[in-house]
Amino acid sequence: xxxxxxxxAVTGVRISLTDxxxxxxxxxxxxxxxxxxGPMEPAADEMSADDVVRFLEVxxxxxxxxxxFTGGEPMLRQDLAEIIHRIPDEMEASLTTNGTFLPERAxxxxxxxxxxxxxxxxxxxxxxxxxxxxxxAYDRVMEGVEAALSAGLAPVxxxxxxxxxxxxxxxxxxxxxxxxxxLQLQLIEYMPELVGNPEWAIDIERVHDWLRExxxxxxxxxxxxxxxxxxxDGLVEIVDPVGNETFCQNCHxxxxxxxxxxxxCLNRNDDLRSMGEMNKPEIRxxxxxxxxxxxxxxGEYFVQNDAGDWVxxxxxx
Length: 317
Prior knowledge:
It is a single chain. The chain is an alpha/beta fold and 317 residues long. The protein has a single domain, classed as TIM Barrel (Alpha-Beta Barrel), CATH 3.20.20. The chain has a twelve-stranded mixed sheet with strand order 7-8-9-6-5-4-3-2-1-10-11-12, with helices on one face. Helix 1 links the parallel strand 1 and strand 2. Helix 1 packs parallel to helix 2, helix 2 runs parallel beside helix 3 and helix 3 runs parallel beside helix 5. The protein starts with 11 loop residues before the first strand and ends in a 5-residue tail after the last strand.
């Protein structure tokens, strides 16, 4: 198992399979790369299925235990089921999707080995959903969630980005998962340093405070020390990395872009490392370099000075 200089072992990887997407969400940061989304047609720069599987075979050598496939919209890859079927034994496979293709494909993905799914859903009305996602696919997403549950992927975790446009929808989303068996809710703090529009950000602690008063119980998840709120039959979790050193201290994941670059942090693109021709020696070398160069705290906020000490990057802030 690989560990960085701060004692964080890498136990998971997050792989973007494409930067293509059939939505145009106003908060999208495309896995930290910014608004680089390409056309809907398959692109030559996307890793092939063989490339993805070869990377995962090396990751498993380093005792990585889980992979999450993302995008763009990863289900635009027609070879997604093949990739999932070919991942190494004893590696958990999960998926983050907008859900529009799940009605037809949830069953085949489960048959291929998919174990968990996150579905992006920021509102419970077609009008609000369209405003945020620039898509009229609300009904398809709802069908996709039901298809995932029917295929055995419960609990389905709904991802909701919390910012000025969606904060007012949080109570009804919490009620929704509390009243519907098999659903969980993940509230994700808006990250303006990736997207821009800092005026959209809200104080995420206010959401914590509201949930604490509403919840039947509160626990802390080991990963990132996330607080989890049990509300009725629903579980609500907040992802709050902005200005949160504890969050970063518990990060055990590296990321791979759709073009085959490895990076050590979502909010960091100055350490992108190519895996070259994607042979196993090059993959091993790149993964080791990436892990060895991980920073202690939230992307490019921290840099090393001439003495080798980690200090706040005033230019970046």
